[in-house]
Amino acid sequence: MPIVIGHMHTSVFSSPGIKATQVSDTVYVIQGNNRARSPFSNAVCVLDRSTLLMDSGCGLDIIHQVCSCLRIDAVVLSHSHPDHTSGTWLLQDLCSPDISVPRQGSDSIALAEKLALRFVEQDLAQLWRETYLPVTGFRDFVYTSQFDDGTEFSTGKNRFIAIHTPGHLADHYCLWEPDEKILVGFDIDLSPFGPWYGNPESDPGLFRKSLDKIRGLPAEVYVSSHARPVKQPHFMKRMQIYESVFRERDEALLNMVPRNTWIGIEEIVEQSPIYKNDYRAHPDKILRFGERQMIGKHLAGLVNQELIAEEPGGRFRKLLP
């Protein structure tokens, strides 16, 4: 049964412990715990004739509060990372909504064991499950439908069109509201850190193509998972800065590769050019794995550009100009 917007709907956003930003008559951004930084993320709530929640990683306490005031009719998950899906099991218990997931990740998005094998190497899978998942609150869940590029989610007044934007993950999507020109970019988050592509399936080349794809949309409001919404012209300026990080990382890594001798990838990772972490003082196998993945993808790109050479065993040397 469709829900009519009323006082009970909007009152949830003035509840203690919930911070929300209204971006249109019907669209609210609910700030995740830890100021929406990992292991949490923003959720987007559409209060229309039916109520739609985009992502569920804002925090289990927030999910409880939201569901005490609203009946969530449908949930759309943008991609498979647990900081975006962790509250889905709780929503199912409290509201029994329809749960729609990207087709590309549908075989693993709801299952912790499969996610672990997808996101890290087998020898780190148990550590990933035991250290990362508990802080998010993730539990296995059951989805009800899959979506793909071009799928339209209609809530009444609003309609959101799924745009496949791989790179961050193979199953990453954005949602575009063409009538109100609202673009929900999720983990194309325009953060100062820059793009993240630290899983084996992540692809910086596809990431850049996805940026080109959304740059062509006439968005007036941009909503991301780990920052506050931005409007034009700030959106395009932030996009340019965000994309420039690819080049900056390429240049930093090229400068780290010597010309007259070989350097191993583990030697580069130890210097942590991306995370700026001291792995000797603060060892973190999961963090290191993600940084090694990103560094390896950049080095492969530099090899393809014939700027560096690679020998067996993952050792690199700068080529002469």
UniProtKB/TrEMBL annotation:
Keywords, in A-Z order: Hydrolase
SMART domains: Lactamase_B (SM00849)
The EC number(s) this enzyme carries: 3.1.2.6
Residue ranges of every copy of the Metallo-beta-lactamase domain listed in the record: 40-226
Molecular function terms from GO: hydroxyacylglutathione hydrolase activity
UniProt key word tRNA processing: no
KW Hydrolase (keyword) present: yes
Protein name: Hydroxyacylglutathione hydrolase
Organism: anaerobic digester metagenome
